[in-house]
Design a protein that fits this description.
The protein is of the alpha+beta class. Helix content is 53%, strand content 13%. It has nine helices and four strands, in the order H-H-H-E-E-H-H-H-E-E-H-H-H.
Length: 249
């Protein structure tokens, strides 16, 4: 049983190392996904909508959310109002009405640190919008972000489209799935083999087998060490006999 725990632990550690190496390659930004998303967003320029409420613009933005590599899409009015959002990280801004409210504190402090007039009103809105779509934070390692302006025929900005997209187009292969499965299986075998061995050993020594096994199941290696230090020494050449059993004899 201890040998099985060691083998399972080594398997789990090996799989974690391999997954870590593969993860780095999966998160390498080649720029290919950015170019693909830019091409998708460039099609919005052909619409030349008159307002952010334009129905054709809304439909086009919804279609962007179904594009390859795109995880989340936001639609902002020029004054910073959040008009629409959908996708895996859209909940990060769902409780806010404007990019001013949704932007992170760090971004607001950066803007406050700039001298008056350093940013135009439009530039400030763009910066706050970029901060708002990144505020979720948890997936910023696997997603990149982009803020794209949609303009009228006269060149004025009618809307901003924010996008969170995949950092790479690399696919998760069979090797990744096998490592995940093997690592998970190794962890289960390792975690269960320790309390099982403690149960059998404690039973042979006349200890409280279920109590010690439960303790090791919860505390794992630390609890195992505590059991080994506290257990009753086995008599030379035989099984341990509990004090109660000795009195009966």
């Amino acid at each position: 049983m201890p040998a099985a725990a060691v083998v399972a632990a080594l398997t789990t550690v090996t799989c974690l190392v391999l997954l870590s190496c593969q993860r780095r390659s999966l998160l390498t930004d080649s720029g290919a996904t950015r170019l693909a998303v830019q091409e998708t967003l460039a099609r919005l320029q052909a619409l030349h909508p008159d307002s952010v409420e334009d129905a054709a613009l809304r439909r086009a933005v919804e279609q962007v959310s179904h594009s390859r590599h795109v995880a989340t899409v936001w639609l902002f009015a020029p004054d910073g109002r959040i008009g629409y959002s959908t996708g895996s990280t859209a909940r990060s801004t769902a409780a806010y009405r404007t990019v001013e409210e949704a932007a992170t504190d760090d971004t607001r402090r950066v803007i406050e640190a700039l001298p008056d007039g350093a940013l135009t009103g439009e530039q400030r809105t763009w910066l706050l919008a970029a901060s708002a779509i990144r505020r979720e934070g948890t997936h910023n390692d696997i997603y990149r972000h982009m803020v794209y302006p949609v303009r009228r025929t006269d060149g004025s900005t009618v809307a901003l489209v924010g996008v969170a997209y995949n950092v790479t187009d690399a696919e998760v292969g069979l090797g990744w799935k096998v490592c995940v499965l093997a690592g998970a299986l190794g962890l289960v075998v390792y975690w269960l083999s320790l309390p099982l061995w403690v149960f059998l050993d404690a039973r042979d020594r006349g200890e409280r087998a279920w109590t010690w096994a439960t303790f090791v199941f919860i505390g794992n290696l630390v609890a195992l060490i505590a059991y080994i230090l506290a257990r009753t020494p086995a008599p030379h050449g035989g099984r341990a006999i509990s004090p109660a059993a000795g009195r009966r004899q």
